[in-house]
Design brief:
Layout (H helix, E strand, L loop, with lengths): L3 H15 L5 H13 L5 H15 L2 H8 L12 E5 L9 H10 L2 E5 L7 H12 L7 E3 L8 E5 L2 H11 L4 E4 L3 E5 L6 H12 L9 E7 L4 H7 L10 H16 L5 E2 L4 E4 L9 E7 L2 H9 L5 E6 L28 H7 L3
Parallel strand pairs: 1-2, 1-4, 2-3, 4-5, 6-7, 6-11, 7-10, 9-10
Antiparallel strand pairs: 8-9
Helix pairs in contact: 1-3, 1-5, 1-6, 5-12
Amino acid sequence: MIQLEKRVVALVAAGKRFSNKESPEVQAAKRKAELENPWFTQESIERAIHGITSEFANQAKLESWLSKYNLKETPDAKKLGLVLAGNIPMVGMHDLICGFLAGHNMHIKFSDKDKVLTPLFIKYLTEELPECSLQFEERERLNEVDMVIATGSNNSSRYFDYYFGKIPNIIRKNRTSIGVLKEDTSREELKELGKDIFYYFGMGCRNVSKIYLPKGYPIELIMEVFEEWKPLVLHNKYKNNFDYNYAIYLLNKTKFYTNGSLITIEDPSIYSRISCLHFSYYEDLEELEKELKGLQDELQCVVSNCELKDIDVLPFGKSQVPGLADYADGVDTMKFLIEQQV
């Protein structure tokens, strides 16, 4: 089997090739990815590539992260089934990298929405380390796997539970992220919060779909600051969602605020539609903390400029730059894969 050190070197080298903006192959793949899925704009793809190569394919960060695990140098491979999501570009890359470093052979079911970029990264990995080519195999059905990591919706999770419930698994359901603001939240902090809300058109589980405001905080200020994101409405699919939701709220006589590209509604639900943002007011931070603790199974990230008791928070603007140890749903993927090594 391939030594771990060689895997790390290959991963870093593949990342450098993948992030090369002068590469005709990379540029062609990015254009094809956008043609096949218009949500994958060039800006979104570049953002995803930067995050992957700077956080997941950085040698110092990889070595520091891996040092925390008792990872076998030459494990005997098992068959790992991966069901990848397609809501944002290359969203399943962390699972794939974990499987690669753990030495398992992966049977991969790509999302129909994202079948260009991740395969190119795999191509670069296998060119840098030809011995690992058997670790990657695209499959439509995952019939013969020893374990599985599947990402989807609450509906698809029931399907996954039925088919994979008898083997070791990580099955991910719907999650979202929220923001908590304090009374003196500044315009500069709101600008950073905008990244958490609008990056990738708000379609990721790390995107903020609801904010909690201290009683009396002016929603008008938030809408004014978020006007810098107005160009999003020039994107056809985003505009279709905005127009549809605008019409629905008008017909239902729902009170809402809008700045021409975002609709904000006071709503208790932490989930909001594309182009919409929910908000609620709070008066007592301790009471809000209790409420949020009851929502932990549905939350991916909490961004805030408050200190929240027993709740991990990220600074505004940082939800979309996860590191290697920022595991989806808080489940340690690498620990799970190491436990399956023989």
